[in-house]
Design goal:
By secondary structure, this protein is mainly beta. It has a single domain, classed as TonB-dependent receptor, beta-barrel domain (Maltoporin, Chain A, Beta Barrel). It is built from seven helices and 38 strands. The N terminus is likely disordered. It is found in: Cell outer membrane.
């Protein structure tokens, strides 16, 4: 909290002291700078035409999409909006879009930015769940395909920048209200407001949103035993059990953002704030049967093996505040940015199970477990940048970056004490009704730790333009110190330190061949930092099948050399683009066998993550957004994109793709506007290809069904719009095929412990949303 108070004090001091004379000297109205750029609220509520991808003229390869591109399909979150842009895949549950996978790579390879700044999240791989950001607060989303010396280089796959609205983008306000109806009949509210206008010497924007969440899913799993001798890949002969599960996720998201900006002749000051709170519950109920066709339900039949109830209560808070001051003077332009971000999560999970698979005459077995977990992740960062014009078309930029990050993890587990007393008529009741007092809560190995990172970066670049060429070339030097304190291990290894430095060059260009055609290219070196759960020095028993996992505090980041080359053609108001990308990744973090026998004895080992692997990633990305004015249909818009993704990595069992990388992803759609009637309608169709993942003791192949969405819009005058939207109209289904093994030796010999077929399904969602501008 002290850091946050200093940040707020610093922003206030900058805004009142250093800049006062520059602002006082400003001539003309406060909003003179951007009269042509400020959007009236009614133009956001009543969209006047078809939305297209923007044409960005900076050297970097950036795809930019304003809200007009996706708003008519009423995405609830930033994750929902990104389903319509190239190369973004998800491995989420059906009808959810949480951790984006740019180029299909695991989420930790994608850098998530809000207003250009990194944000902390709950995941151990440092990823951030985009379904926590309401789409209503977004001004635009940017896919930054390559890195620049200006930004931190944690972007092997690329960066996704979510730019929130500010006061110089909106004049006036509007309210949004509506509801969503889910397949089980439940209705959730969706409410929001946004307002922007002149206040004092600058402009202010305020926005808020309340979003109800509900996701009722049905799952079914069939599990089989040992592998048949004539089929080394899949075990399909010996049926073991079937599991029927209902999984319902309910919650409310509360969000708020605000900006205040003063733009003078030579000085600009901007203060941003963003806050999201999530209250969420996850309720699962599972029944296992020893017959593939037994009647579903909690009945005391001979086929019922177990009755399991799992309930999780999740509370999350995520907020950022940052201030930026820039000033032009005789020596150039100087910018200072201070930012503070914090993420908090409290999770309470209970699981109760009645086991009926007992000897005749014995009482059913009952187990109860409770887990409390807490994550606190905070970041304080300072960035100083100075820009010097060398000529009218060339400038030199240099600066520094400091970040102080602390992540605390506290997990405590307890088991129910004593034995539950059963009465036969209770078999049809929820196992939670048999719960009793729990024993002492204790932290499991590696479950209670603190990780601190201090970064000191410097960077320099030259950028310029000449005729039809714009270009940038620079280098960034990142130095990081890591301190780890694990409270679950002996004192002699509890405190660990490491340090690493990275030299990261980058270059980008755009070459205009004609007014409509240009080539875009870039090359950059990037990094991916180790997962937090791999850094603690704890030994976790039976974490890798029956084998153990030993953390490695001395892990270094993975690094990658990457290149992108693309072509863009302007088509009327739209764009056609194609891009080829390649990444060569070294120092991959892989689990290696230390040779030490594991806690389960012969045949098991202790595995440790180490920087031992190499991998390659490549693909082709094609995108299109245009109207059909060329054939006399200016009010008909077409949009779509398709990405073919591939990679190669060598692990303990041979060659494979990067884990869970989809082979392809595409979506396409159309919008028809009828201005004379104030009506528009459209549809979009999306499909993500199969993905395969392999780790020690488990392999999984994941496939998704297609997703179809439609909307109908009616505009009333210049201030009111109402839309009806149907999503997941094809009853989205996620299918997973698991190969499970006791240990690495069994995996290589294809000696299965279990083979599982799992299917998850959710029904359509219908929503009605209305907006009114004022």
């Amino acid at each position: 909290m002290l850091a946050k108070h200093w940040l707020l004090f610093g922003c206030a001091a900058l805004s009142t002291g250093y800049c006062s004379s520059a602002w006082a000297a400003k001539a003309g109205p406060d909003d003179e700078r951007s009269d042509s750029e400020i959007t009236a609220a009614r133009d956001i509520v009543v969209i006047g035409g078809i939305g297209y991808r923007n044409r960005v003229d900076t050297p970097e390869p950036i795809l930019q999409y304003d809200t007009e591109y996706f708003q008519r399909f009423e995405p609830l979150t930033a994750g929902d909006a990104l389903k319509r842009v190239p190369s973004v895949t998800f491995l989420s549950d059906v009808i959810e879009s949480d951790a984006p996978r740019l180029r299909g790579l695991p989420p930790g390879y994608t850098q998530i930015l809000i207003n250009g700044e990194r944000v902390p999240g709950a995941s151990a791989d440092r990823s951030f769940f985009l379904d926590r950001i309401p789409a209503e607060l977004i001004s635009r989303v940017e896919i930054i395909r390559s890195s620049s010396a200006r930004r931190t280089a944690d972007a092997v796959a690329g960066s996704l920048n979510i730019v929130l609205r500010d006061g110089y983008e909106l004049d006036g306000g509007y309210v949004r209200a509506g509801g969503l109806r889910y397949d089980d009949g439940e209705v959730e509210p969706s409410l929001g407001f946004v307002w922007g206008g002149a206040v004092g010497a600058g402009r202010l924007l305020l926005g808020g949103n309340l979003q109800g969440r509900h996701n009722p899913k049905v799952k079914q799993s069939f599990r089989y035993g040992d592998s048949p001798e004539n089929d080394p890949d899949y075990a399909t002969e010996e049926f073991d059990n079937r599991e029927d599960q209902t999984d319902t996720r309910d919650g409310k998201d509360y969000s708020f953002n605000g900006t205040y900006e003063i733009d003078g002749d030579t000085t600009n000051f901007k203060l941003n704030g963003f806050y999201v709170r999530t209250d969420r519950t996850e309720t699962e109920r599972s029944f296992e049967y020893d017959d593939p066709t037994a009647i579903t339900g909690p009945v005391p039949a001979g086929n019922l093996l177990s009755d399991n109830a799992n309930f999780t209560d999740i509370n999350q808070e995520n907020y950022t505040i940052d201030g930026k001051l820039s000033h032009e003077w005789a020596a150039g332009k100087t910018s200072l940015r201070l930012a503070y971000a914090r993420f908090e999560e409290d999770r309470n999970e209970s699981e109760y199970e009645i086991g009926f698979d007992v000897d005749e005459g014995d009482e059913p077995e009952f187990e109860g477990e409770f887990t409390r977990s807490s994550i606190r992740d905070k970041e304080l960062s300072i960035r100083l940048e100075h820009e010097i014009p060398l000529t009218e078309q060339v400038k030199f930029v240099f600066g520094g970056y400091y970040q102080d990050k602390t992540r605390r993890t506290d997990i405590r587990e307890a088991e129910q004490e004593g034995e539950a007393t059963f009465v036969w008529d209770q078999f049809s009741r929820n196992p939670t009704e048999l719960s009793g007092p729990f024993g002492d809560f204790e932290a499991p190995d590696g479950g209670y730790n603190r990780i601190k990172e201090k970064r000191r970066d410097v960077f320099a670049l030259i950028e310029g333009e000449s005729g039809g060429l714009v270009w940038e070339a620079g280098v960034r030097y990142e130095s990081t110190k890591v301190r780890i304190r694990d409270f679950t291990v002996d004192d002699d290894i509890a405190n660990q330190r490491s340090k690493y430095d990275k030299f990261l060059p980058s270059a980008s260009f755009k070459l205009s061949l004609t007014e409509r055609d240009r080539i875009i290219g870039s090359v950059a070196r990037t990094v991916r930092r180790p997962d937090f759960n791999y850094l603690t020095p704890a030994l976790i028993e039976e974490e890798v099948g029956d084998s153990d996992l030993l953390g490695n505090p001395q892990l270094m980041p993975e690094s990658a050399w990457g290149a992108d080359i693309g072509y863009e053609h302007r088509m009327g108001s739209g764009i056609l683009g194609i891009n080829f990308f390649y990444r060569d990744i070294s120092d991959l973090i892989e689990l290696t066998n230390t040779g030490v026998e594991g806690s389960e004895g012969e045949g098991t080992f202790v595995f440790q993550p180490q920087n031992v692997g190499e991998g390659k990633v490549w693909g082709v990305e094609l995108d299109l957004s245009t109207d059909l004015a060329v054939v006399g249909l200016p009010n008909t818009g077409l949009f779509g994109n398709v990405s073919w993704l591939d990679s190669e990595i060598t692990d303990f069992a041979g060659k494979r793709r990067f884990n869970d990388q989809a082979k392809y992803v595409y979506n396409f759609g159309a919008i028809q506007d009828i201005p004379s009637y104030g009506v528009a309608f459209g549809a979009t169709y999306r499909k993500q290809g199969p993905a395969y993942g392999r780790v020690i003791s488990e392999e999984v192949r994941t496939t998704y069904g297609a997703d179809l969405e439609v909307f109908v819009e009616k505009r009333v005058g210049k201030t009111f719009t109402i839309r009806a939207v149907g999503s997941n109209l094809l009853n989205g289904r996620k299918r997973e095929v698991f190969n499970k093994f006791d240990n690495l030796e069994d995996q290589l010999d294809r000696d299965f412990d279990e083979y599982e077929l799992e299917s998850e399904k959710a029904g359509p969602v219908f929503q009605i949303m209305a907006r009114y501008a004022f």
